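Example 3.2
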Amino acid sequence: MKHHIYLEYSKQSDVFTRLDLIKKHQFDGIFIKIDENDKNEQIVNYARTIGLDVEAMHLAVTNCNHLWIDDELGNDYVNGVIAGVEQASKLDIPIVVMHISSGNNPPAINPIALERVEKILSICEKNNVYLALENLRRLDYLDYIYGNINHPYLKFCFDSGHANAFTKNIESFDFAKYQDKLVCIHLSDNHGDYDEHLIPTHGNINWLNLIKKFKKIGFFGPLTLEAVTKENSFDEELYLQEAKKALLYLESLYQEG
């Protein structure tokens, strides 16, 4: 089973040092965020040179609520998503991860979002890049998109931290509803209050139960860690050792039950 990690787990070291450390600690790949300064090409090329997969790219989230509003900010958000899809295609990254809402009270559900997502998906299909929507605070917005758009490039990214802290339904999350669309997972832990992005087992998520759910729907990786440390000075190698240890533990849970 492959083990991936978010490249932005820390800002303490430069990005190429981080890539070397990720490889040293036996991760198989990374996922990255969209870059507006054209540095991702260097990052991706170097990652692949040292033998790391590049699983996905997370798109910008600023103004994502305007997906549901007929205004210039909404148009700008969509154009940014499209630019991200095209950047991913250029770099041969197969998946982009997108937020479609923010907060507990986004703008009202309405068809303009459908029109915009369909426009984005047409670009995805042209560029052979999957669009994975992430679970956030309002699953009804996610369900509205999935319920009204049937497209082979429309996919799902499950975020454990969001399910535990935002919707607080990680124990009852309806994976069956999304299993045919699930293409990637973002794993982090928290204590149920906010999205702490802790290494698994450092919060209160029941990982055995979650892994059982993954097994039930036939998801067998990659196991992708989205832990982020906010410490300004820490032992980066020890952090990555702990991160790798956590993913090995999660993989071992696949053998239980």
